[in-house]
C-alpha cells in the first residue's frame, strides 16, 4: 500500500510527509528516520547521549536493552512526545524535531494499549481517520478492513474493557495501522501477554509487517523476541547505542562484551588465560564449547563444578584457574549419570577457532 | 463468623441513616398530610390541603383559584440551582484540570486550598458578600471613588446576587469530583490521541471531556441538590424579590406557623431531586451498557 492511495486529502497536508508530493519520492536507499547526535537530558540524568541512528524504509527495526537503557525515550522522541535536548530527527529527509506528534505520520502501539475506554472498538479504530479528515465513506470502509487484518472483525461494537489483553492488543494494532502511517512504533507490545500468546503475536506481527509494507520500530527487553522478529537491532545501554546490526551480526559477532553478555548466553574469558595476544576478552557461546577428548590438550582447563540437566541437553559448569565459571553445553541427555560422575574432576575444554570472538572493552 | 463481620460493621452506619435520616424524612412526609395547628405543629385530620396550597389559593367564599406565586418560586429555584450547577461546571473544570496537571505535592496543597472555605462558617462568608455588594459596600464605594459610577449600582437583592452566592458556596463541590475524575484519567490516552493526529482542541473535546463527564455529572448533582433548597444565600443576598424554595419552607415553619405546608414543600423538593438523580443514574447506566 503506497501512501499515495491515502484518501486523506484535506487535513493530511498538515501532517509532514503523510502524502508525498509527486516527484519527491525518496529513493529506497535514503533512511526514513534519521537521528543525528540526539541527546535527551532530565536534569542531571542523561536518558540518551549522542545517539546516531538511521532506520531504512520498510525495515523491522528493534531497540533492545534492559529497563532504563533509554529505548522507550528514543521511541518517544521518534513519536514526538518528547523533544531532544540537542540533536535532530529527520523523517524522509525533513527535519521533524519540532513537529508535534499529531503532525507526524507515525503511529504508536502503547505498552498498555491506551485504548479509549469510552469508545467502541470501531470508534477507537476510526478516531485517527476522523482526526485526519478522511471522508466518511473511506473511513467506513477502512475500519472493517484493518479489523479483519488483525482478526477482530466480530468485535467492532465492543468496548475495550470487554476484551482480553490479547484482543486489546490487536485493536491497538488496528487503530495504529488504520491511518496508514509511514512508521509504526511498538512499545513493548507483548510484555503484558502470557508466553503462548506472545509467540502467536510474534508471528502475527511478522505477517502484519509484510502485509502493511511499512517501517516497524519495536522496543523490547526480550532478546529472543528481538532476534526472531527484526531485520536489524540496536542494542542500548545507559542511553548509548552499543551496536547496530542484523540478528546474526549481533549474536555471532558482538561488538563488545556488553552486547555479547546481553544477547544469548556467553562465556567471557580474559585473553591472558588463553594465551592469546592483546588485552581484552574472548567470547564463546556455551553451545560451541565441548569437553576435549583424551589426549587432546584443549584451550583451557578447569574443574567441573556442576552438571545440569536442561531437557534438551546438558550444561557443564567449569571453574577455571582464576575462579571464573564457564558454561558448556552438549547434547546427549541420556548420558547424564556418566557426566554427573565428572563433578570435581579436572577437564579440558575446547572449541573451534571460528566460534571465538575477541572483543574490545 | 468471619463472613458476618463485614455486614456487622455496617450496622452503626445503618442505624445512623435510619434514625437520623429516614425517620425525620418520614415525619416530614407524614406532617405534609396533616392539618396545621393554630400555634404551629400539626394535628389530625388527614388532608391534602398543604399540597393543594402550592397550586391553589382559597378565596373568601372558600372557592379555589389557581395561583402561580409558589410555582414561580419553585421554577426560579430550579433555574437558579441549574444555572449555579452549570456555572460551577464551567468555572470548576479548568481549576480541576489545572490541579491535575501539578505535581502530587502541589495537588495536595491546591486541594486543601479548594476546601479552605469550609473552615469558615458559610453564614460569615455570605455576610462578607453583603459587605462587598451592598450600596455602601466595598465595590460600590470603590467604583464611586474611582469616578467610574456616580450612584451605587444595585448589586444586591436580585437573582444575579443569589446566583453569585450559590456558585461561590458550591464551587468546591464541583471541583472535587471533577478533579477525582481527571486525576484517574490515564495521561497515555491523551498521548494516544495526539499520536492519532488529534489537535489539542480535539483531545479536549473527544477524550478529556467525555472521560470527565461522570465527575461533572456527580458535581452537578452535588451543586444542584443543595442549591435548590438553600435559604441562607437567597435570604441574605436575594432579599424579598429573589425568594427560593428554602426561604418558603423556612417561612412556613417560622413566621406563618404552617408546618404541614412547609412539609409539603420539602417533600416536593426531595421527591424532585430524587427523581432527577434516579433518571440521570439510569441514563448513565444505559450509556455504559451500549
TrEMBL record, chain A:
UniProt keyword annotation of Chloroplast present: no
Pfam families, per database record: ABC_tran (PF00005), TOBE_2 (PF08402)
Keyword ATP-binding: yes
Alphabetic keyword roster: ATP-binding, Nucleotide-binding, Transport
MF (Gene Ontology): ATP binding
Domain ABC transporter: 33-263
Family, per entry: Belongs to the ABC transporter superfamily.
Protein name: ABC transporter ATP-binding protein
Phylogenetic lineage: Bacteria, Pseudomonadati, Pseudomonadota, Alphaproteobacteria, Hyphomicrobiales
UniProtKB/TrEMBL annotation, chain B:
Family (UniProt): Belongs to the binding-protein-dependent transport system permease family. CysTW subfamily.
Membrane topology category: Multi-pass membrane protein
Keywords: Cell membrane, Membrane, Transmembrane, Transmembrane helix, Transport
PROSITE patterns found in the cross-reference section: ABC_TM1
Entry keyword tRNA-binding: no
Organism: Shinella lacus
Protein name per its UniProtKB record: ABC transporter permease
Keyword Transmembrane tagged: yes
Residue ranges of every copy of the ABC transmembrane type-1 domain listed in the record: 74-280
